[in-house]
Structure prediction request, 621 residues.
Amino acid sequence: MTTSDTKPTNQSGVNPNFDLALNKRYNLDKVFAIATWVATSFALLVLAILLIDVLTDGLGGLNWSFLTSFSSRRASSSGILAPLVGTIWLLVITALISFPLGVGAGIFLEEYATDNWFTRLIEINIANLAAVPSIIYGLLGLQIFVRLIEPITKGRSVLAGALTLSLLILPIIIITTREALRAVPDSLRQAGFALGANRWQIIREQIFPIALPGILTGTILALSRAIGETAPLIVIGAVGFITFLPELSLKGLQSSFTALPIQIFDWVSRPQVEFHQNAAAGIIVLMIVLLLMNSTAIILRNKFQQSR
Amino acid sequence: MTTSPLSNEPDKSNLWQPNRTLSKRVETGVKALFALFAFVSVLTTIGIVLTLIFETVEFFKAVSIWQFLTDTQWTPLFTNKKFGIMVLISATLLSSVIAIAVALPLGLLAAICLSEYAPAELRKWLKPALEVLAGVPTVVFGYFALFTVTPFLQKFIPGIQGFNALSAGIVLGISIIPLVASLSEDAIYSVPRSLREGAYALGSTKRETIISVVLPAALSGIVASFILAISRAIGETMIVTIAAGQNPQLGFNPLVPIQTMTAYIVQVSKGDTPAGSLAYKTIFAVGMTLFLITLTLNVFSYWFVRRFREKYE
Prediction:
């Protein structure tokens, strides 16, 4: 596009910037098109290499006893039971906290809120929160959930971890809820009002059921992000060496915990090569969990798109 | 004619009677509750800011701001304590610049490919594939950087160490390609067709149309995606912690171990640092620096998008 530096060779009064070198331009076009394809395939190629790499490194270490034993000082007898269960705990509690909060906030902003300073404040705020580094949420969780409300969470507990992760994914859930609600046609709301229903009745009976698959898809994707997060959990103090499971009761919420990414990080940072195979096997388990969640989300989305 | 009230008046007890007081009360209650939920996000911001300010103020009671900004060493965990944040900032800058040099061109080219060149059928497959790449946890990218990319680089670059900024930066860049690609693609795809056709009618080739018409029209969205990518690169933790090392030193040599701001926070968090100690306070001071940098970028992005957004139709 820098034709300005080509010399004005013609004296015939034609704009010197006009250069009809079609062959050259078409060749440049081809180069450009190829460059875009190379960039796209590069990203996918790296993804493929990464997956193959992890599979070849880790499949050898993946067996039933790896899934059912606790962490150990010897790599060969180390297993992933505690982190796997910890991740499931985090997943369930984070979902229980963030889903009602995020969906409620989304409904408020999309259905109830008028355009005033309070709404605008919240909107700018959510956009900003979505871009705050996750490790900052870790510092927030450390100060508020681990120290300030220690009597409830008992310090570095699975509850403190889940609360931190909930705040982390709240902006994503709010944003997807709003998008799902916006996709519901306004005529349904007007029909509801015409029948004498008030706003909450319309939302409960008409709008929310239609928007639900979209909201669920977004929530599952947000949760799968939470499950892969490592940094905030390290900051609030998840430990890499846990040899017990939280008991299945309210007391279990206050138990200390570990999670799959934490355990993987712990194994990666050890110098012994045997632990690196464990890390790769742990990554496979983590990726399978994420894959299951994402395929659920995709199935939900497809069902949703068909039924409309 | 008056009809007999007995035959025509329906039995009122069978009629649906709306309980207006109750449903109004429920409505008000629900609205207030959901407004409270929305307010949680504001509370989160307030919590982040107060948390960081509180501990940072405590930190600056022990260390002067001048020393914090100008010292050229970072050794808070040693006996001879030095607190030069520039050491950590230079490392963060180094790894981010490498990442951005990878992610911005590749991400933008991929976005152009998806929006302008890829046939619709292929696009339907490419987008989810990039989403998969975006969904890979960063700890996995860290593993990939340390055990695959670094040994690969060692074949070509003599003197590159086991932990280095180059490998971490490249993988960090790859991890944010999908972010740049998908957000830029949204912006490029939404440029109206009429603009492209106008450029073709004036004799532009496809590349000329894209570069001089489509990209400028999508500029605000593209820049927003770039800035988000930059702030993601600066705040990213696990890749740089795993692959770039834990060695705080001032300088911009990509072949040696460094320690970024985020990696330092992880290093302190992993150890047993008692609350209230100076080392404990440093992670909040570092967190505050990180927060201010990303906040500045966000504010700039917000301003830029408002200022340069092109509205069509």
Q: What stands out?
A: The CA atoms of residues 142 and 148 of chain A lie 9 Å apart. Residues 71-307 of chain A form a domain with the MetI-like fold fold (CATH 1.10.3720.10). DSSP finds twelve helices and no strands in chain A.
